[in-house]
Design brief:
Blueprint: E1 4-11, E2 14-19, H1 32-41, E3 50-54, E4 59-65, E5 69-71, E6 73-77, E7 80-84, H2 88-91, E8 96-100, E9 106-112, E10 115-119, E11 130-133, E12 136-139, H3 145-155, E13 163-165, E14 171-173, H4 184-194, H5 201-209
Antiparallel strand pairs: 1-2, 1-3, 3-4, 4-5, 6-7, 8-9, 9-12, 10-11, 13-14
Length: 270
Amino acid sequence: MAITLEVCFIANGKGSWVDLHPSTPLPTTETSQDVVDVLHSVAVPEGAIALRVTTSAEIWTFYVHPDIGLVPRMENVGGEVTEFWPSNARLGGIWEVNHVLPDGNLLPVVYVEPDSNFQTGSAEVLTRMKVSVPGGFMAKTPTTIRQWNWFADAANRNPVPTVATSKSGGVIDLNDHPVTNVTYWDACAFAEWAGVGIPSDAVWEHAARGNDGRRYPWGNDPPTDDKCWTSILKQKDGTDDVHKRPNGASPYGCLDMAGNVWEWTSTYHK
């Protein structure tokens, strides 16, 4: 199998991948160096948000930053192909892009820079350790009922109800509430369909806290209603809209990383 190349465009709220046929013929082999050569030679069309390189072994996806081009950048260093992930400062701050799902719907993701010396845990935790976390992209919010139902429709699963009745008798729109009662294997099935990964504990924590040692995603100030939805503040039972508290965003722009629901990670704990 030779290398294939696609680019992604968004139109009318939907995304789609189309084949890209560069003026220079693509390699008939598919080594890692071939992938690097393709990335360095191809001109990404104007308006494209991502580029995808497929070989028989794997799929490489790169997002297009308006200032610096493809992220991550691939280089051959000493015979080894290496990914270079820029800092958020290099990107000009928080970078939010759209990940296109198989049905064309859009999943907002944010860029999280790498950290080779991330300190896990707070000062009160005895099991703190320093770890290296890679750069990558993470969903901006916990998976919502709307997003889950896109998957349920594609996978022939029962959809989750999108409305509920409040204690006062009103109707609550649940589409932008986080989905609940999801097993780890359910989460894996959604992630595989969506083409995203489930983060490890360290990657999740780094996305939530950044690299300045803060206690909460928004800083060190105690939780308040404008930053998180939690029973600590004696709020109503149930979940809430994941977009309602931008003041609680993490340093990378992730929302609801404190309060609302528990989230799965890929780390196994005995």
